[in-house]
Design goal:
The protein has 1 helix and 9 strands. The chain has about 120 residues and is mainly beta.
Length: about 120
């Protein structure tokens, strides 16, 4: 059993929970995107880097978890040396799309730098 949360959600009349499963090889990224509700990640294996404007959050090892609030653009990257297998939950207003692709922001390379450093160790 794992605890991830609490999720900060905006008031809505109806919510939708979108559940995702992913397998990322080290260095793999998700496309740049935003969410209309908070997203919580839980990794069964591997290391996670989540870059958003002005910061990167890193969680390592089996059972790591991260969360991001609704709104900011983000980049998710598997770092480390083993595949990242995980789950995610996006909890959002049912009248809004869960995910929107964006090109309005470009990462500073914070996760890419973490990945590169991991490969030299």
């Amino acid at each position: 059993m794992a605890d991830v949360g609490p999720l900060q959600v905006a008031p809505a009349s109806t919510y939708t929970a979108e559940y995702l499963r992913s397998v990322f090889l080290p260095g793999t990224t998700a496309p740049l995107h935003t969410h209309s509700g908070p997203e919580a990640f839980f990794a069964l294996t591997g290391d996670t880097c989540l870059e958003s404007p002005n910061r990167a959050r890193v969680a390592r090892g089996r059972g790591n978890s991260l969360m991001i609030e609704a709104g900011p653009p983000m980049l998710l990257m598997a770092i480390g040396k083993v595949s990242r297998r995980g789950f995610a939950l996006i909890l959002h207003d049912a009248n809004q799309p869960a995910t929107t692709m964006t090109k309005a922001w470009q990462p500073q390379g914070l996760c890419a730098a973490r990945f590169a450093a991991d490969q030299t160790q």
